[in-house]
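Teaching note: in complex prediction, the entire set of molecules is handled at once rather than each chain in isolation. The prompt given to students was simply: 'Predict the structure of this complex.' The entities are:
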Amino acid sequence: MAECQVKKSGRHEYYCSVELTLQVIGGKWKPIILYHLGRNGTHRFGELKLAIPNITQKMLTQQLRELEKDGVIDRLVYAVVPPKVEYSLTELGHTIIPVLQHLGQWGQQYEEYSREHGLSEVTV
Amino acid sequence: MAECQVKKSGRHEYYCSVELTLQVIGGKWKPIILYHLGRNGTHRFGELKLAIPNITQKMLTQQLRELEKDGVIDRLVYAVVPPKVEYSLTELGHTIIPVLQHLGQWGQQYEEYSREHGLSEVTV
DNA sequence: CGGCATCCTCACCGATACTG
DNA sequence: CAGTATCGGTGAGGATGCCG
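The expected output is the structure of the full assembly:
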């Protein structure tokens, strides 16, 4: 984090490792996807689609592809009709789960804190 | 994280607390700003500008304003000429530092892992 | 079932110029 | 010094339709 040079890793450009992490997990739906794969293990595409309301097929596909390219999930295609595709965390992918939990914990703290301190009111 | 309802906290809408955290720290320059404030304490605007190459005045101002609204930094304006403004972490802001460190650690692991496993080559 | 191809919108970010 | 104000590019994200 101390250095301020542009680095590259895979598809990502970043100045510090925090930024790199955020580029891997920072997609709008990626935390939720990783959460589901971490919690219940392997999922089919349709299961993820059901588990994540409001996500469109396009976005689900796109985010899954990026996570795959970044090496945090595996994609297993069965040669059957109708198609069957299963997604699961890689070894590397499992290591991100504690980080996500940490983020989640802070978010909850923040939620409470802002309720107590009246941060939650928006002046529209 | 288990629930999938839309919530609101302050300026943010989110489905899970991970998302909320990412909305607070997820701006392009926010991690770096928080890092500097966490490491060396109070900074003047110009000091931050110098410490963060490439950032524009506009972006620095904007990100600082958002961090302030979210309650993680304080803004102290001295009534002097020329103007003097100091930024520092709030109590709440300090609690985000370990989370950032965790993100940074994972990023470094990821960096090594992808070098070892040839993830770092991009097919342009 | 699990996609891909298009088209579109809008928030994010940057460059530049001006100011109390 | 520490900002605003304005304009404009760009790409992430979304809606819709077709396909093996």
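Point out the following to students. The beta strands of chain A are 7-9, 12-14, 43-44, 73-78, 84-89. The helical segments of chain A are 17-25, 30-40, 45-51, 57-69, 91-94, 97-116.
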